[in-house]
Each structure stands twice: as structure tokens, then as C-alpha cells.
Amino acid sequence: MKRFWLYIFISAGRMSYEILHSNLKNILPSVTTIHRQLEEMNNILEGEVRIEDLKLYLQKRNYPPIIFISEDQTALIKKVQYDSASNQMVGFVAPLQEQTRFPRINKFPVDSVSDIENAFKNKTLAINAYIFMAQPLVDGSPAFCISIFGSDNRFTSEDVYKRWQYLIKEAGKHGITILGFSSDGDTRCLKSMKIISKLSFTSLNPYSPYFQANYNLENPAVFQGTIHISTKLKTRLLNENISMNMGGKRVSIDNIRYIIENYPRDKHLLCKSFLESSDKMNFNAIDKLSSEHVTNMLKEVPNAEATRQYLILTRNILDAFLLKEISVERRVYLIWYSTFFMRIWKAWLKKNGENIQKNFITTNAYTCIEINAHGIILVIEKLRQNGISEAFLPWLYSSQPCEKVFRETRSMSSTFSTMINYTLLDVLRRLKRIQAMHEISTDLGPNFRFPRQENKRLGNNSSVFKVTEFPSTDEMINIIKKAQEDALSDAKKIGMEMNRDCCIEINLPTCDNPEEQEEVQGSIIITDTISKEHEPDLEPDFSNEDREFLEYTSTFNNYDSLYLRDYTGQKKAQKSCLSVTLKDKKTRIIKKSTLIWFFQEKQGRLSTDRLLRVKGMTVKNTHKGLSKKKQFRKKPGQGLQPAGNIKKRKMFRQPHERAHKDSTSESRSESDEISLESETLSEDFSDLEDCHNESTKMPVIQLESYYAVFYDTQWYLGRVINSYSSEKFKVKFLQQDLDTFKWPKKDDIQDVHKEFIFYGPVSLSGTEPFSLKRNDLIAIKQKYKTIKSIKSLKN
Questions:
Q1: What are the Acidic residues biased-composition ranges (predicted)?
Q2: Number of independent structural domains in the chain
Q3: Quick one: three-class SS letters along 401-453?
């Protein structure tokens, strides 16, 4: 029962559980007991390959020792956090092991301030979480996380290949068979799959000459996610700049638009948003577009033969893997029919001198289709040879276990929270809870019902065609030959009359082809180890109980004061704190998490919009900010103000100094924060700059009036108390707390050049704390953002 209540605690949240416990005290275990039970479960460590845990997971649930592995990545908030359980900084990209290409674990310990400083100086922040999931080949079984780590998206096909080889070797040591690998069309994973399968390699095998790959039943099969293939085909279909030619007829979205505009909606079940190309991962759209309703209606639309055939091919590719109620023979026929038709189509374009890149599907999508067609043959032969037909579950041969866990982690936010993005440490902690929920619902399944958990599992929603015996090799060959004949016949009907020889020509480009090259060359992951400086002795008068703290002084020896909480003398805080020595030789005990916050100049931001988040994950976009190492800049040495106080700012440098120093990575990341607005600004920069020049031409500055002043980090509100000239003034600044202002305990007075005063005069309302009129506050924020955008664009 305790495990059941742990499930309730995780799924409902602490607040709901406390309400239940308060009213059912003698029935439910306490929150402390629940927490203790959760802590007893193994933590998921970044970079750890959990093959031994996987073995126990399979044995405990009597699952067969045969799995399918998928990999994928999702975007993170770029932020470093302290994990007290492992005494590690989490959020950096760890260096890779040469042999396995998995990251080295425990590479960012926090034993001194120098560890923190050196990491921020020399290491790269993770922008994605890269995950490997092991799917037991039992219908409805939850997947198991083998490994997860932070990535900057800079890896190569060689890294992918070596990781797979390592997983095969380690799994074999524990008696686990990896049936295959799958991914989502990433070019680096695709290249590794071509290397393993030797696609387009002609050899003597039972399925020659149609089967042109390495016919080695000892190797794992490789697959590309069928859902991702279909969305790639949809994206190609909706591309206004591409007009695919099929037998002299055009594959056109206009044919589908005609159906939407001229037929009742209950007949086609479509909506106009399905024809928008902005959401490239909208599977529901292509699922409806390729439905039998639509393809049947296209028979009545003039000149829609090519479009109809394109959608039929898409539907066949989907059904071959996702439909659970069809036979093995039907699956083989569907995928090989589509493969043969693609070969015929490509050969026809080549014969007629058509540009294949503009008139055919993308090379990536075509390669994925070929890989899946060859992969399903290999899986059937492997399973027939080993006598385990029950493991033939093609709907599990995809990267959907990864997508599923990403959805679960994003939805696992606290009560009343709408935040769906997370840091790397958040992912690790949520994965532990998700794994606990999966194990509990599986183990207690015979005695308890978990409707939501059952519905979310892959392959649990329809009847399954149970494979008791595979068709023989001769029967498989006959199915493939029939698929070939039907493909040739349908191609002829559409105007592409070709001979049988074209059905054995794959014509995949080599890896040197520009279209097939990896978008990322090499790796910038740092593998150098940072040597620690010798740590000086602690002060003689320092208490014995605090001598366990380590000390590092070079970072803070220029500070007169440090307005961070001092934990000196508190025994409970010893493990989570470090000692620092200031300019006055006094020692402070500061929390490690606070020191990490101190060194982290800017926290990354991630859009909550799925379309923008996925777009930002592309290789092209993620590497814009990684071409140069981040330049670490120390805080000024005059001392820090409290978090609520006005900080000692990088104050008014001369204009030429500001222009020089603003060209840092901080400026660039600030422009990224403005995102869509800055893109609009850059399209018409000259007009915006003129507008900026007009807006910053302040009238005569009035003494004892309040103005908004521009700084690198943010804007501040202050009162002009004196003037040196018409261009230089003395300003007494207010302290801001959200949208209110008050005078700080210690006066903050600075000399300000007129060029940095960008709005005012304004009136303050009420007594202290003061407030601004809403229209003034909005105008100040908007003007500050505009000026900041212009500075970023200039640099």
C-alpha cells in the first residue's frame, strides 16, 4: 500500500496529498514517510549508463531480455544548478569518453570556489537534454531510461556509432539483446544507420536484388521513427516553393484546399490549419490528410492523381508500422510497395532530366523509408531464427518512448504552475519520479487500476494481431515481388512507365554529398582538465568546526564586502557551503548554490511555445551562440549590494567605451531574449534607429524631477539633484521592487551623462513605496527594450 500512496503523492502533488492525509490520518502514511520512500529509490545521474538497473527492471517484471533503444533530445533552460546529493554542478556539457562517447560522470564537483569559477570560464552550458530509452518488447510496457546527459548539440556520426557499439557490448555482458536502434531523422544518427546497415550495398542474400543492405542477422536493426517520416513528407507537401512532379502531374496542396472549400466538413474531417506549414511536427494533420476519406474524395478532383498517390504512399508508410491489427505479410507489402514506388519515381525523374531535389521528396526522408523497409526484413528473419515471434511489435520500433518521456517531464510541474520548461537538474529529478510511477503502476497493475497510466502507454489502445508464426522466406519474397508489380502498375497509370530494373536502383548519395553532410563538423566539447590552485590555510582564529570548509581567495580578495548570507558557525550548512576570504582578510561561509548563482551572469530563456522551442533546437540555430567561447567577466571589485538593492552597476562609461564593451556575448544573448521583436527590428533597422534617435533627444533636464536612466543590465529611476553642465547631472537613484520604488537605506548617487537619460520627467504616485503611472511604466519598458535591441543589432 505504501507504494500506491507514493504514486498518489507523485501524481496528485504534495498539496493534494496533505489534504488527504489530514482527513485520513490513520490510513495514509505521513509526508515524511513518503519522502523517505522516494529517497530510497536510486537517483538518475547525468551521463550514467544504467544497464545493470535495466537488467533488474526486466527481471523483476518477467520481461524478456530483448529491448529496442531509441534516442532523442529536447531543449533546456540554460542554467547551472547545484545538486547537493552528488555535490556536482549540473548544467554544463561534460567531456566525452574517447571509447564510449558517453560523457564522463562527476566532472563538475564543487569542492572550492575555483571549481565553480573555472567551470564558468572554460566549459559550455548545455542547451539540450539527450536521452536514451530502452523499450521492453512487451506491448504496453513502460520504457526505461538508460542514460541522459546535457548536450550542446555538437556531436558527430562517429559519436553516435561508438555509443551504439558500447551499448551493444554492455547489454551483452548482462544477457540483454538489443534488437535495434531508432531515432527521429537526425542527420548524424541517419549517417550512423547507413554505416551499420551498409545501405545500397549489393550482396548475395535471399532477398536479392531488392534487398540492398548488409544481410547480417547478428547486427541490430535500425529504424527511423515513422511519425517523423510522415511529418517530413507533410512538410514537403506544404512547401510553397516545391512543386513535385510525378509523371508530368503535380503534387499540389491546392487539390486538398479544393476539397476543404467545396465539400462538407463531415465528409473530409479536415480544417484549413492543416495546410499551414508553420507546425512541422503536427502529426495529427498528416494523419487526417492521408486518411481514406481524403484519398477517395481526391478521385473526384481534376488533376489530383499525383497528390492522391503521394498521400497513399504516406498512409502506407504509417500503417506498415503503426497499425496493430494487420498481419506481418500486410506490413511487408505496404512498406515495400511505397519503397518500390519511390525508386520508380526517382528513376523516372532522372530519365526525364528533371531536378530531383526540386521534384522529389528530401534525401533524408527517402533514406529513412529505405532503412525501414530493409529493417523490417532483418527483424523478421532475426526473430524467426531465434523463435521469439512475440517480440515483433513494429509500433515500438520508434523514438516515441523519448517523445513520451519529454511530454511527461514537461507536464510534471508543481500545483498551480504553468511552467513547462526546465533545467537539466529538473529533468533528472522528474525522471526519477516518472520512473517510480511507471514501476508502481506496472507492479501493482493486477491489484489496482491506473487508467491514465495505461492509456498513455505505447500500443495499448487497440487489438493486436498476435504473430504465432512468421511467413517463410519464399513467402516473403513473393510478397515483395507483388509489391513491385503493383508499384510498377500504379506508376504506369500516373504516367511513369518504367521497367523492372529501376526497382533495384536505390541511388543514395554518398556522405560527401552536400545534402547529406552533417550540419555540424567536429566537436567543441572541452576535454582539458583544469588544475586547481593550492588552497591557503584558513585563518588561525577560525573555529575548528568550520575547518571542514575549503577556501579560495583569488576571486573575492578585491571585495570590501559581500552582501550574501553568511553561514559561519552553522553546523547544518557545512556540506553545502564554501569559505571565501575578502579583502579585509575576513572569512565568509557562503552556500554553494549561491556562489553558482553569483558566477552565472545570465540565465538562458526558452520559449513556452512548442513551435519556437523546437525551431530553436535545430543544429543551425543552436550553434549561432556557440561559435565562440563565452568570455567570463568578473564583477567589479567595489563590493556587491544585496539582491534587493541597486547593484554597483557597470556605470556610465564614456560613449566610446560603452560601444566597445557592449560587443560581448551578453549583448548577443540579450538580443536573443527579445527574440521575435528583435527579428522585426533587424528587418528595418534604419527606420528604427531614426526613431530611437528621436526618442532619446531629451528636452532640457529639470532639477528635482524624476527620469528613467539606461544601463547595460536594466533601467533605473532616479531624481536629478544637481547639474554639472547641460550634458552631465548628479542623480539620486530609487530602489525598485517589482513595480514600486523606494529610497534605499544608503544613498545611491551617481554622475549621469544626458545621453543615458531616455524618458521623463515622470510623476510618482502615493507615499513611499512610490508607484509610476501605468502608461509611463509601459512606455519606459518599451523604450528600454527598443534601445537595447538597437545596441545588440549594432554589435
A1: 672-686
A2: 3
A3: HHHHHHHHHHHCCCCCCCCCCCCHHHHHHHHHHHHHHHHHHHHCCCCCCCHHH
State the Cα angle at 420 between 125 and 715, rounded to 5°.
65
Top-confidence residue, 631 or 131: 131
Whether residue 708 lies inside any domain: the answer is yes
Per-residue pLDDT of 283-319, as tens digits, reads 999 999 999 999 999 999 999 999 999 999 999 999 9
Q: Which residues contact 216 (CB under 8 A, 6 or more apart)?
A: none
Q: How far is CA 235 from the centre of its chain?
A: 20
- 569: confidence class by pLDDT, cuts 50, 70, 90: confident
In a domain, 724, yes or no: yes
Nearest CA among 290, 364, 360 for reference residue 320 = 290
Q: Is the dihedral of CA 323, 326, 327, 332 positive or negative?
A: negative
Given this model, what pLDDT does residue 646 score? Answer: 37
In a domain, 624, yes or no: no
What's the CA gap between 607 and 609, in Å, rounded? 5
Which residue range is the domain that position 697 belongs to?
690-794
> How many angstroms separate the first and last alpha carbons of the chain?
62
Grouping H, G, I as helix, E, B as strand and the rest as coil, residue 180 is strand
Return all residues near 766 (Cβ < 8 A) that are at least 6 apart.
none
Specify the pLDDT at position 719: 92
pLDDT 10s digits, 659-692: 333 333 333 333 333 333 333 333 333 334 444 4
* 3-state SS class at 248: coil
Residue 412: all three cell numbers together: 510534471
